Amino acid sequence: MNIWEPGSRLNIGDVTYPPGGAFGPRVQRNLQLVYVWSGHATVWIDGSPVHVDSGHAILLFPHHRERFRFARDRDTHHGWCEVVNAVLTPVAQSLADRAALATHAIPESIATLAPLALRYRSDERWAAREVRDALCRSILFEFIQAAGCALPAVHVGASGQPLPEPVARAIDGIHREFATIETVGALSESVGVSPQHLARLFAAHVGATPTEYLWRVRTEHAIELIRSTGLTIATIAAQCGFRTPFHLSRRVRDAVGASPRALRSPDGR
Asked: Does the 165-263 domain belong in CATH 1.10.10.60?
């Protein structure tokens, strides 16, 4: 049984909502696992409320209308792992109908897998994509197995050349610490080369400067949060390392030709 077509894109995210946070309404487009690490959430699915406690998760299926409300007295930290624009077969749809509105405890393995996958969430190196997709498949597999269903693998093909070690380490550092990196000098020092040498290596192997790559990662992550959460633009700017909300808006417009407000359509995408 295939739950999605081979080659479909997998994605993972992580966000903390302040007390009283909300998101939606939206129409779910993906096969999405939402897991709550701390706090709690209530999600209305086609008008039916489901409470998701800390340490629990819910699997959301395409084409349903959803609305989220998070804990009023504390932060709610939650993550998600999804198959983008998933195509369900009739058998998979039958499983979806049985799993709808049900929550389950988060398998212990996901607490290990999710942080690893998050390191590669916007890393487009071929090997990183392979690792991220494999980790995302494992997260979905672990949960659906625990829920009594089965999940097939997705076969994704890619090719590329290995990067020099300083570049690979710098890129890994950017994807892990993009919100807090202050200077390229500090980044180059952490990988043991001069800023000038790191810049030459990036130009030859990445086609961008380290600074350009850093802002690309920050912008991609901000766009993901704009599309996938209800956080304010100011909060997203702060979480992604932008100096001001205006700076974020300018970067987003340069990247996709639309403002953050325009990215938030009525269905939440």
From this structure: yes
